[in-house]
Amino acid sequence: MTKTVLFEEINGLTLWWALFFKLRRYAVHYLALNRRYRKDPILRLLEAWGIYHLRYDVLAPKETYFNEVPVHCRRISEKFLLPNPIYRMLVTHFGMDERMQKKFQIALEQSLMQEMTILAKLLLFADHFRKQTQASVFLFAKQDLWNRSILEASEYRNIYPKSLYLLSQWIQRGSLLLPRVRAIMQRLWKVIPFKRGATSVSKTPSNPKPQPHPRVPPNPTDYSVLYFPHKGFLYRRQERTTELILGDPFYSEDPDSPFAPSRILHLLLGAGDPIVKETVHCFDELGIPHLDLHRLPYDNSWVSLKRFYRLLTQNRVSLLKEIREGGTTRLWFLFQTFHFLQQYRTTLSPFTNARFALIARDLLIPRILCVALGIQGIQLLSYQDRFIAAHMFYHLMSDYYFVTSEFIAEKLRTDGQYQYIGQSIPIGLIKTDPMYKAAQAPPIAKYEEIKKHHFLVLALDYHVPMTFVENYTSHYNFWKNLKRFYRDLICLASEFPEIYIVIKNVTDEICDHPEFADFMDLFERLPNIEFAREYVYNPPEQLAVLADAGIALYTSLADEMLAAGIPTIYYDFFGVPSTYFDYENNPMMVYSYEELILRMKQVLNKTYMKEEAFLQMRERFFGKYDGKVKDRLHQELLQLYHESEC
Q1: What's phi and psi for 514, nearest 5 deg?
Q2: Distance of CA 392 to the CA centre of its chain
Q3: What are the pLDDT digits (tens) for 127-184?
Q4: Positive or negative, the Cα torsion across 530, 476, 560, 578?
Q5: Which residues contact 576 (CB under 8 A, 6 or more apart)?
Q6: pLDDT over 60 at 205, yes or no
């Protein structure tokens, strides 16, 4: 039987080891590609050499190791970080009280989770290969302090050479010098003519292009409310972007409110992102004040390194003892934490009048930035963007968290050990307000006509990975899952000619994807199923309120349909959302096509759920559905704002 080696990542160093094992006739697979290598031609070349990307579509739904990662992170922080003198030094240096220390611990655990999740996923594949091949499986993963804590509980041998690990770490940590090296090279470039015949005088073009008038950046001291907006609205077509921005739940329609768009300073994280560039363009057109947080002055890593060493000396922390006890892993981790905190504190120092930081989607903002905001005395406000977020191992962090219902507030109070929530305020599911408004508007004529003859079902799927690399690295929305969903929907449409299924994807890109061309042809030919291509003219909230029922791979819109009183079935054949929450055994979940047929019969026969029980479930999970959730949010926001003035 062929032995198998599973690589954590293929990069410039590990590629040669992968080729070495391949020459020794091992089966070689890898979980991640280095950022520079994430291209389809490189993936194809590796496959030609017999080095294959691990694919999530071969795994069983149960993700034991992955779900245990937060528990490991808590154990590591309590054993290796909290008692450490450097950790205590950082707490003292940044003046953290008990509340801030709790935030700090959660931020560290979130950083650890990002470090350890890859190995946890690798162990899932190791279990799979051992069961499939009955042969020896070896791991090729970094031998750091965190990984060892997980590997101690596993049965697999890690054959990653310690010398290679040390080399990779020194290469990574040598990047600290890059800002200084870059500055030296820029100075040399002005002095030394590198090209033959080059002179220090540059030619000016005879007809220079007119430069646009530079936008005057806003003054940070003029704003009491900061905002980290969610960029996801740009998944939608650009024709609706302006409407989507101005419909943001945090925006007040009162121009004199401190939460009016023109009175909030929007902070973006990295303008190099194409989506962020589009966001900046929209903000400029709408006259919304914004700054790129990463473009503001900050302390580079070289300055942080000198400051960190000075702190260690002042606090009499022995570097040799630290390295001897925990290696360089813990020291490097704590230095990076210090560096980012110091960097964000310097960057945020001009915001002297800021009281609140609004977070449109709490899962996207770096937790260490949340800590830095707290150190500056800026309170965090966020709303529950997705219902499932409170049930997963996300390290949520907010001083005021506007949640859907008292059920969620109570769950966070009792089970939220991996979160810092200062106060949970139930207001309802805020994304149902557009649905309530859409229900009062004239319906889409095409689908109103279809409803006269059919039972309208809205099917919700995931956005499609566009390349092979994206497909291999997708955890749930890989092509195999989407194809199974489409095949079963086609069979369901044939089984029930009285229903009409409309499939709504996040974007229209899938319509032109060659991998799904056969399905698009079928949707064109079949009489009672279609793919909603006219995305701009069929907004999701209008389609949702028109539907008589829904079938969904788990999405937030499916929860919004349930909150609006529309029977919705989660087709969970790969462990989501049941891995995290099963809706307390209410009849929303089906796990096979046979169950889907039976549940659809119940929906059609109106035996899906008793009306009173459905209403109780809806209010228990999602709160009130009355189109006034945003009004309740702004009443709470204004009250908090006025209290902060006192």
Answers
A1: -60, -30
A2: 13
A3: 999 888 888 999 999 888 888 877 877 889 999 988 887 787 777 666 555 655 555 6
A4: positive
A5: 61, 476, 553, 554
A6: no
- What pLDDT is attached to residue 25? 92
Strand order in the sheet with 529-531: 529-531, 499-504, 455-460, 549-552, 568-571, 589-590
Q: How far is CA 357 from the centre of its chain?
A: 19
Using alpha carbons, select from 236, 637, 610 the residue that is nearest to residue 434. Answer: 236
230-246 pLDDT, tens digit per residue, is: 765 444 444 456 666 77
Give the number of other Cβ atoms within 10 Å of residue 173's Cβ: 15
What sign has the CA pseudo-torsion 331, 335, 341, 342? positive
The sign one gets for the Cα dihedral 635, 641, 643, 646 is negative
52: CB partners within 8 A, 6+ apart: 28, 29, 30, 46
Q: Of the candidates 633, 639, 641, which has an alpha carbon nearest to the alpha carbon of residue 249? A: 633
Which 8-state DSSP code applies to residue 298? -
Q: How far apart are CA 630 and CA 639, in angstroms?
A: 14
Q: What is the distance between the alpha carbons of residues 457 and 567, in angstroms, rounded to a whole number?
A: 10
- Weakest-pLDDT range from 307-316, 385-394, 400-409: 385-394
Judge contact between 508 and 533, C-beta under 8 A.
yes
Apex 273 CA angle, 272 and 274, nearest 5 = 110
Sheet containing strand 157-158, strands side by side: 51-53, 27-33, 4-10, 137-140, 157-158
Cα-Cα-Cα-Cα dihedral sign, residues 246, 384, 440, 561: positive
Rounded to 10 degrees, the C-alpha dihedral 167/171/173/176 comes to 160
pLDDT digits (tens, 9 = 90+) for 30-75: 999 988 888 889 999 999 999 999 988 888 766 667 778 888 889 8
Q: DSSP label at 77?
A: I
The residue count of the chain comes to 646
* Tokens matching residue 431: 């994304």
H or E segment and range at residue 320? helix 319-348
Residue 515 CB-density burial (10 A; 0-12 exposed, 13-18 middle, 19+ buried): middle
Helix 319-348 and helix 162-174: axis angle, to 10°? 40
Q: Nearest-CA neighbor of 142 among 111, 112, 124, 169? A: 169
Question: N- to C-terminal Cα distance for the chain?
Answer: 74
The pLDDT tens digits for 553-573 are 999 999 999 999 999 999 999
How far is it, in rounded angstroms, from Cα 66 to Cα 87? 27
